[in-house]
Amino acid sequence: MESRLNYFGHPLAGKVLKHLNSANKAVADSTLPPVVQELVKIRASQINGCGFCTDMHTKDAAKAGETAQRLNLVAAWREAKVFTEAERAALELAEQGTRIADAAGGVTDAAWAEAAEHFDEEQLIALVSLIAVINAYNRVNVINQQPAGDYQPGQFG
């Protein structure tokens, strides 16, 4: 499989990605736990069918010490007993935030309240921002049909 464009090699894409990467860095540097960040990235990428991002974030999470069992169960997190209540709240918010078009009301008050029980204001801002950023990355890669499988952990710094 070949990508439709050499998106990552084009100067305009470089300008766009610079801003997305800056937003991602702000979230990465926040107090939102890194494990929650990776789980959210993986789940949104699964929902959006972004193989490139799913490959990247599962490999990065594994390198950071995430277990194969938890990585294998992200797609079925509701039925899995391996996630904390905070992680479950973040995954629910990520799902609802990713599937906005599927729900007339967007993110439910219940999902928001559950997340607010586990995360402080800065962490909620980081979580909302992360959901927005990973969805943007997913869309770039899905539209461009960016191939998955060759990512090496830390490849993008």
TrEMBL record:
One of its GO terms (molecular function) is peroxiredoxin activity. Residues 20-95 form the Carboxymuconolactone decarboxylase-like domain. InterPro entries: AhpD-like, AhpD_core, CMD-like. NCBIfam families: ahpD_dom. This is Carboxymuconolactone decarboxylase family protein. It comes from Streptomyces sp. gb1(2016).
